[in-house]
From TrEMBL:
Domain of life where this protein originates: Bacteria
Domain HTH merR-type: 10-79, 125-194
Species: Deinococcus ficus
A UniProt-annotated Pfam family: MerR_1
PROSITE patterns associated with the record: HTH_MERR_2 (PS50937)
A molecular function (GO) term: DNA-binding transcription factor activity
Keyword tags: Coiled coil, DNA-binding
Listed name of the protein: MerR family transcriptional regulator
Amino acid sequence: MPSDSKQRPVYVISVAAELVDMHPQTLRLYERKGLIRPGRSSGKTRLYSERDIEHLREIRRLTQELGVNLAGVEEVMRLQHELDDLQGEFEAEIQRIEGELREQQSRPQALPAPDGSVDPKDRPVYVISIAAELVDMHPQTLRLYERKQLIRPGRSSGKTRLYSERDIEHLREIRRLTQELGVNLAGVEEIMRLRHELDGAKGHLERNVRRLQEDITERMTAWRTLPAPGSEEQQDNAAREQEEG
């Protein structure tokens, strides 16, 4: 999980319940459902963080303002927790790479070249008729979902909609939410917004890790080309500097 101050568990359940205008028993129910994940003190007392308070307020908004059922709320909060965990993984990976960089300064070695290829799941390949057949929906339904921004198909040079494997996965997920879990459209919109955010966060993490790996590789190359201490080239450089001085 992220290490920022919002993750610090500080509120006992009575204070947390008052902050979000809920009964403490409701908070216990949400914890059993896995919607929130409060910390524990050494004495096993529940302690809620600012992030937990934000999540509880989001649950109240989904249920009271948007009318999302509990199954839909569970999906939303599961994705929100995935985003929180991904942020923690990103921070840990950055720390790991920075530590590796410091280690390499005293012991340079070659690193594997990063793979900059595009995920094949994101390649737009299916026209709307094929995509609709794959997910057992009418093409007009796919157009509606696009207007609602539940899916975001690509476009060919001629402006034809082209759907990727990831779009197909998202459409199947929409069908599962609506048909199996009975989630209303407002809930589906929230869930798919978080799914797109999660996909974007994963891509951002991968790009940043790749950038750091490239930086390490460049530094390794530079260190390998430096002359050894006391080498003839280094002595010549020092002599030239003295003459110029």
